[in-house]
Amino acid sequence: MRYPGRTVIQQSHGLQRFMLLLGFGLIVLFLVLAIFAPWIAPYDFNQVRGEDGVLFGTQQPPSADHLFGTTVGGADVLSRVVYGARTAVEVIVLAVLVSSLIGVPLGLVSGYLGGALDKTLLLVMDALYSFPSLLLAIVVSIVVSGGSSGALGGIASAAISITVIFIPQYYRVIRNATVSVKTEPYVDAAKVVGVRTPRILFRHILSNVAQTLPVIATLNASEAILTLAALGFLGFGIEPSAAAEWGYDLNKAMPDATNDIWWTGLYPGLAIVLVVLGVTLMGESLNDITNPLLRTRAADKGEGELEIELAEDLSAAPEIIDSTETAPISAPGSIETRRTAVLSLSDLRVSFGTDAGRVVAVDGVGFDVAPGEVVAVVGESGSGKSVTSRAVMGLLPSTASVDGSAVLHTSGDARRELIGMTPQELRPIRGDEISMVFQEPGTALDPVRTVGWQVVEAIRAHRQTSKAEARSRAIELLELVGLPDPQKRVDYYPHQLSGGQKQRVVIAIAIACEPDVIVADEPTTALDVTVQAAILELLLDLRSRLGTAIVLITHNMGVVADIADRVVVMYRGRIVEQAPVDQLFAHPAHPYTQALLESVPHLGRTHVSEDDPTGPAPLEGAAVVLDLEDIVVEFPGGWGETAFRAVDHVSLQVHRGEVLGLVGESGSGKSTLGRVAVGLQQPTSGIVRVGGETISGLSDKDLRPYRSRFGFVFQDPASSLNPRMSILDCIAEPLRVHTDLSDAQVTEKVQSLLDSVELPSDFAERFPHELSGGQRQRISLARALALDPDLLIADEPTSALDVSVQSRVLELFLELQQRLQFACLFITHDLAVVDTLANRVAVMQRGRLVELGPRDQVLRQPAEDYTRSLIAAVPVPDPVEQRRRRAERGDLLTGA
After folding, report:
1. pTM of model > 0.85
2. Is 319 a residue whose pLDDT tops 60?
3. Helix 529-546 vs helix 499-510: crossing angle, to nearest 10
4. For every residue of 173-227, which 3-state class applies, written as one string?
5. CATH homologous superfamily for the domain 18-294
6. ABC transporter domain: which residues (predicted)?
């Protein structure tokens, strides 16, 4: 069975190419007419006599002498159309160019700097925008045309009147895009290395908001033609004796329309239509042509291949990775005889691409899920686990080809094949019998709808119930998933909830109709350990109470050990092993499974190398690089609210050669403290010293000389690298800001940095989207170390990486840190990672530093209850140990 649509996709690509060529051809045609008008037009645009001095006469129909006929005044229509093209092109170019040169810089500066300047410009632009565009053009035309004369003056006046209309459009679009982009991590990364404001505006912000400019410019070009024609038609356009203009010709042709004289109005009107059509078609394709994010390196690369590339960072040895041998697949206690499967997959195969080349993302996958069973599907990014689940739900793009079987067993003997169903056939099944919990709740929830509305929508999609009854049920569901104060928060918007609370809402939507199967795709990724533990408890509770089968897709082996009954291990689209959870962790059969488990950091079982089996020890006598003294950071509250204190009187030091692990839940203030350390956030009070010199309170200009001493590795490598810059430019930026190296020397240094992070030199010419997550994080590390900084701030640098990729990045980080001896503040919520690499550990809670000491002391013998609760919430990759810990927590709750 296959998804329909491959032929349709190919036809759409062919249609898109045709439209591009058509638009390009029309634009070229009118450009040629404009440039070569004196040579193409048989007569001058106002000429009414031939070379022999004889009048052409009036209202001549098309003939050999006048192909388009003549106007009422005797002028040649073809000549006026050709010269009208020159007028139109001149006005378009002037209006679009001048308005963009004014509106774009104003939008950049206004959006980036904000403040009084932003408010003033907004007021002016809104005032201009409130005028009807044509009325504003007429007013401006009257004002500016008084002092202009001749063809050039008339065209300039028309261009100015249209420019005034376009400036607010460019300003508003660029300003709003700038406000959004200026908070992106790659802009912060540029600030950290000391990039000046003009370069940030034009190299980092404009390059990422300018993708809208081709579309705006082409729309404005179309609007310019129509506005120019309207001005000419109404008599406010260019002086008729100064230049030919199509709108004026349409006005003069109106009386002819009632006398069956069609040619005087047809050709100017057709010219307007064709120019607008050509510009519009061309504009729709410009973004695709100029956008490096759409660039691929192989003509036959499909979507599946892009996913498979993400497995390049596996830390297992090549002979393990390349192994095609499949371990014996253990039956889970003969499920068929124990209980009937609710979902059965067999020989599932998914490929992406076109007939020119297809890439297999899932190859022959098959497994069963029984009622009330939790089956974990694990593997690296690109292994095909998410593609498998989306194939079952019918959520793959139309470029996917799906074969095989996915049978949903419901009450009685009902048996339905999901593969091959149309969206209309799947709609009553999705959410009712099989539902999905998505990885990122922030993007899975509609930001403009309340969470209650979204739960109600899920209920009423499958149940005949009133809004009041559905709302009451929504509150029950939110209470069931543990959302605090559900009667009040049912009317909250997603942005008013924390990440864990949003995930609970997503789960409430998934269970709204009590489905037989829930597919949970990375439901705890990037969540704090305490929030993660609560979500896992919720899933287990739902399984116990509702008998729901759960397909858990994850790369977190601690989560697998905690709640899974059976594990399916996937690698490059195939199942290499599946077994009951105890058997798989105790005796993994396949080399890939063994390598995967070996890569998992395990709290309490630190193992860095054979020479250093216990991890880094606390340093003695090393110089202080970072000194934070009594730091307080407050953010203004809303209307009538007090200020929010994110960091509350925190003091700590980081020494040369030391890694200080800073841990705590989201909202504890640890990332804010990291931003304070490098000047991205000024403290409300307190002192920041780097290398003994005070940097707190300095302006960006005064802080710039110190920037070479900082390095910053951000949490999300995809968003911390400018997508419009090549890898070479990303890594080279600190070198170009702080050194006088030549381009050749910069390139040589970048090659050396790529080598230090174990990446090929040819990666320098790639763009960030062409690399896997682990590769991008290595690029971020190379950029942070480009100037050999004294201090490195690493803010959750491995939270979004697969375990084996994380393992390689951490090994590389430790190797570089021990060789270069920089001081590092390592911010994370993963205590197992901290146990692997930190000399000391600092624990933050609600903005305060609650515990600070050597790693062994804080993680083995914590003094604070909060630290103990964090440690207890960390799932360890050992199902036997996890069951023991769950039993202990249960005893504590029951008072046993």
Report:
1. no
2. no
3. 20
4. HHHHHHHHHCCCHHHHHHHHCCCCHHHHHHHHHHHHHHHHHHHHHHHHHHHHHHH
5. MetI-like (1.10.3720.10)
6. 343-597, 626-871
